[in-house]
Amino acid sequence: MSSVLFDVPGPRAVVRNRLIGAATVLVVLAVLGWVVWRLFATGQFSAEKWNIFTFSAVWVRFGEGLVATLAAFAVAGVGSITLGFLLGIGRLSEHAWVREPVRWIIEVLRAVPVLILMMLLYYGLPVIGVKMPPYWAVVIALIVYNGSVLAEVLRAGIESLPRGQKEAGYAIGLRKTGVMYFILIPQAVRAMMPVIIAQLVVALKDTALGFIITYQELLYVINQIGNQAPYGSPLIPAAIVGGSMYVAVCLLLSYIAYRLQRRAKRSPKAGPAVQDPRQHGGETNTSLIVLQGDGSEKTR
C-alpha cells in the first residue's frame, strides 16, 4: 500500500519504528534522571537553598521582574508587528526605489544580533551625548530585530498565495492598496500565524538579554536572588522558579494564538473549509487517477 508522499511502513518497519521510539524515550528519561540525581547530590533541593522562598519580599521581587518582562514584551510585540507590516509592504512594492532600500534595511537589521543592538543603544549613544534608559534600549532593539524578521514572514506569506487571488481583486475593480489590505494580507496573516506567534515567543524570551544592560527584568531578579550568599546562593532554585514563569507565559501566549487561529477558521471571512487534497472519500490521488483513466477508456 502506498500514499501520495511515501510508502506505508510494513510490519517490520512498524516494529523497528516502535523500537527506535522506545529507545529514544528511555534515553531522554535517563538524561532527565541523571540531571535530577545531580541536583539531589549537590544539595539543590535542600531546605537551606529553598528557605529564601518563604519570604514574601522574594516573591514580590519575582513579580516585579515578571511585570518588567511583560512590559517590555508588550510594547516590543506591538512595535514589531507594526514595523514588520510596514517593511513587508515596502518589500513588495512595485517601485524599485522603495523596494530595494527596504530590502537592504531588512537584511541589515536581521544580521545584527539583538544583544549588540541593546548595547549600542545603552552604551553607545551616551558617547554622542544621548542617554537612553535600559527599558527603551531593550524595547527598541527587540522591535528593530523582530520587526525585520516579521517583514520577511509577511512577504513569504503573501507570495505563497495563488496569483489568482490578486488577479481576482483587480478584476472586481480594486486598486493595489485594496487588493493588499482586503485580500492578500488577511490570508497571509492567517496562514503565517504560527510563525508570527513563534517569533513573538522569541521576542518574549529575548527580553532576558536586558539583564546585560541592567534592565531589571525576570533574569535580573533570578541572578539577584540566586547570589544571596547568606541563603546558600540558591541560583539553581531561583532559576527553576523563574524559568517556570517564563514557560507559563510562553504557554499562555501559545494558547491565545491557538484560540485566535480557531476563531479565524470559524469566521465567515475565512471561506469554506478546504479538504485535504490527498484524500477524496478515502481514495488517494493516485487511485483516483487510475479510476478516471479506466472510466475514460470505457467511454471510448
Question: What does the model show?
Answer:
The chain has about 300 residues and is mostly helical. The protein has helices spanning about 10-40, 45-50, 55-90, 95-110, 115-125, 135-160, 165-170, 175-190, 195-205, 220-225, 235-265, 285-300, and strands at about 280, 285. A hairpin with a 2-residue loop joins strand 1 (about 280) and strand 2 (about 285). Helix 9 packs antiparallel against helix 11 (about 235-265) and helix 10 packs antiparallel against helix 11. Mean pLDDT is about 80; it is low at about 270-295 and about 295-300.
Number of helical stretches of at least 4 residues: 12
Series of H and E elements: HHHHHHHHHHHEEH
Shape: globular
Strand order of the largest sheet: 1-2
The value of Rg in angstroms is: 26 Å
Pairing-aware structural class of the strands and helices? Answer: mainly alpha
Mean pLDDT over the full residue set: 82
The total strand number stands at 2
Major beta sheet summary: 2 strands, antiparallel
Q: Give the termini distance in whole angstroms.
A: 30 Å
Helical content band? over 70%
Please sum up the structure shown.
With 300 residues, this protein is mainly alpha-helical. It has helices spanning 11-41, 47-50, 56-91, 96-111, 114-124, 134-159, 163-171, 176-191, 193-206, 218-226, 235-266, 285-299; strands spanning 279-280, 283-284.
Give the SSE map.
Layout: H1 11-41, H2 47-50, H3 56-91, H4 96-111, H5 114-124, H6 134-159, H7 163-171, H8 176-191, H9 193-206, H10 218-226, H11 235-266, E1 279-280, E2 283-284, H12 285-299
Antiparallel strand pairs: 1-2
Helix pairs in contact: 3-4, 3-6, 3-10, 4-6, 5-6, 6-8, 6-9, 7-8, 9-11, 10-11
